[in-house]
Amino acid sequence: MVLLESFIKVDGDLVPMAASGIPVPVPDPDYIEGALHFVADGVEVLPKYLHDDVVPLWSTLVDAADVVSHGDAFKTYMPGQAITLLFVPVELAKLRIERREYKDVAATVSRREFVSEIVRKGTEFFEDLAELVPESRAVCQNQLLRIGRIRVPGSFH
Fold first, then answer.
1. pTM listed for this prediction
2. Contacts for 106 with CB less than 8 Å, ≥ 6 apart
3. 22: Cβ–Cβ under 8 A, 6 or more apart, which residues?
4. E-strand stretches of the chain
5. Which string of b and e fits 139-151 if b means at least 16 CB within 10 Å?
6. Which of 43, 63, 100, 116 could lock onto 84 through a cystine, CB 3.0 to 4.6 A?
7. What's the CA gap between 100 and 79, in Å, rounded?
């Protein structure tokens, strides 16, 4: 099971991207503070309290999905934080996801499910962001093109 929900910080609170009431324009279109709540196999890989600039965070997850869709491992860091994220294919169709910091966490999920959810939720995020923050449209379009080229393992695109 892979669950992903995007949030934007508004007046000190994390508000779901899908919620109405997010001011347009956001306070700083070059640094969109928010969070990505990412749960894999019941483990909080990215809890909401690890808020950051959500655009490079989502871009990094798109990179991870692209790399692991080809069966390769991917290592990255949370933007602006000393937190390592690892995505390591194990067995034939599984993916081990790890967050390394003062308290490491790890979960194993279907590689196909992970890639599929990043494609689905990443598309939603960048489409919504392009509407909410017109200054980000070029970045969003670029990310949407990248997402469109990702092949979900086991699918027939």
1. 0.91
2. 43, 96, 97, 98, 99
3. 8, 10, 15, 132
4. 2-10, 13-16, 33-40, 43-46, 52-53, 74-77, 84-90, 94-100, 105-110
5. bbeebbebbeebe
6. 100
7. 14
Number of H helices and E strands in the chain, helices first, is 3, 9
**Coil, helix or strand for 143?**
helix
One digit per residue, pLDDT tens: the chain, 157 residues? 999 999 988 788 888 887 555 655 577 888 888 999 999 999 999 999 998 899 999 999 999 999 999 999 999 998 878 899 999 999 889 999 999 998 899 999 999 999 999 999 999 999 988 888 888 899 999 999 999 999 988 764 4
Structure tokens at 26: 């956001």
CA nearest 133: which of 11, 18, 60, 25? 25
